[in-house]
Specification:
By secondary structure, this protein is an alpha/beta fold. It has ten helices and 15 strands. Helix 2 crosses helix 3 and helix 5 runs parallel beside helix 7. The longest helix has 15 residues.
Length: about 270
Amino acid sequence: MARDARWDALLELVGKNGRVEVEDAAVALDVSAATIRRDLDQLAEQHLLTRTRGGAVAHGVSYELALRYKTGRHAPEKQAIGRAASELVAVGEVVGLTGGTTITEVARALALRPDIVGETGMSAGGQPTLTVVTNALNIANELVIRPQIKLVVTGGVARPQSYELTGPLANGVMSEITLDVAVLGVNAIDIERGAYVHHEGEASINRLLAERAQRVVVAADSSKIGKRAFARVCDLGQVDTLVTDSGIAPEARARFAEAGVTVIAV
């Protein structure tokens, strides 16, 4: 197993269980205990976990994997969700995008849509065919080279875990704009309490995006459904559409529908 794959697996074990033991990880990943110790030392140097005698533990209850280590998790589902969510955005609209791996796939799908790109990448009047507002630096980096997309990036302080800008500077931009649709990435969505993320600063920006939008779309793979994270973004009543994968349980799908949420499972 390659080092990056081992690191991803180790971080996922820590995120799921709160801790990992060297001997258990060595058996699970079929490598030597010395290799696991070296991997844990290197991950601890990057402040992604805390080393303990015999293993490692997560930093805290709101533990999250850094974005660069989440890209391979549920990748096919996220790509399909991204394409489906992008189809909910019409040409000429103003769309708000949060950060996260699933919303990155939404942004990529939007940038490749033929009706948005067109032959020249611009509308007949020479104007962009889509306006994207985002607080995610990685999404902005991908879209800034697309002339067909007018890109608006909020201010704020960057979080290295997610590449998202948060804080009062981001709030100031959000209070001055309106959106046709907001596409939110979440760490959890609970049928009774609504949508959640791990970090309170990101929750605040996501909440503002939802409040400024006429339509709210949550894009999340089925592993996020029925769970809660640290900070609540919005209640279910603010969500118009949930785009997820076919792994959603029939009972959950029915309950979302009862709450007035349109479910698109791909």
